[in-house]
UniProtKB/TrEMBL annotation:
The protein, known as: TIGR03619 family F420-dependent LLM class oxidoreductase
Enzyme class: oxidoreductase
Protein's organism: Amycolatopsis plumensis
Database matches in NCBIfam families: F420_Rv2161c
UniProt entry keywords in alphabetical sequence: Oxidoreductase
Amino acid sequence: MRLGFSLPVFGKAAATPGGIARYAREAEQAGAAGFWVGDRLLSPVKPVVSYPGYDTMPEEFHTAQDPFTALAIAAAVTETAVLGSSTINATQYQAVNFARLLTSLDVASNGRLLPGLGIGWSPDEYEAVGVPMAERGKRLDDLLDLLEKWWTQDTVTHEGVGYRVAESHIGLKPVRKPPIHLAGFGERSLRRVAERADGWLPVWSVPEQYPADVITSTLAKLRADAERAGRDPQALSVALRVNTDPGTDAGAIAESVARIVELVEPDHTFVDLTYLTDGVEEHLDLTGRLLELTAKG
């Protein structure tokens, strides 16, 4: 099993000067297959919508790094690891700037970028960036249209949602067209995955919160829907995030990861360490322990 891990972008570890660079460099040397970021702009004191499972927001989100900066740092200090996101709230960003950011990251990493995109759930964050939350689905479809042009055409013109791109030379192209993975379990989100995405971003939890067949049955439906849309169903990739509760034992994580990977057979798997560590040293220690345990399994 090739296992990836979250970069220390949230919580106390995120505030460590030079911490992301040190973690990415040493974790890749230890055998980490990929490094992943999440995206949290705000941690409201009284959120309009609380974080799932909480009355407010987890303390870890009070401190948050910029996901693009974190990926750029990781790109600079690593050679082979996949650099992914699960998930960036893509519709909270201006589309043209977002396209340039992703392209620059792919070039900087020599083609290792795996952009995992979603539409977010926080009304507070949408209000903060001045984007109507009700438009997020429409804006994601528009962004996918723009990225297709940005990555495949030498000159680009585009009529977007609330913006217009005059015919322009776009000379910077990715090393290879980044495989866009989309998040979501809702009907419309899953239809978008089947019809437009290169992959899906399911989530598993340790301790387990639902049966594994929630993922496997959804994946089977996605691939059937992709085939009906005239696409190759087996080309639909899977990047599985494994969430972990505070205090979860490394052995339990490794055991659960091994079981879900055997059932789902994802193309990429990473463990989110956000709630398990308070610093970069702990992040590295747990990474090494999980790599040892999964290698034995």
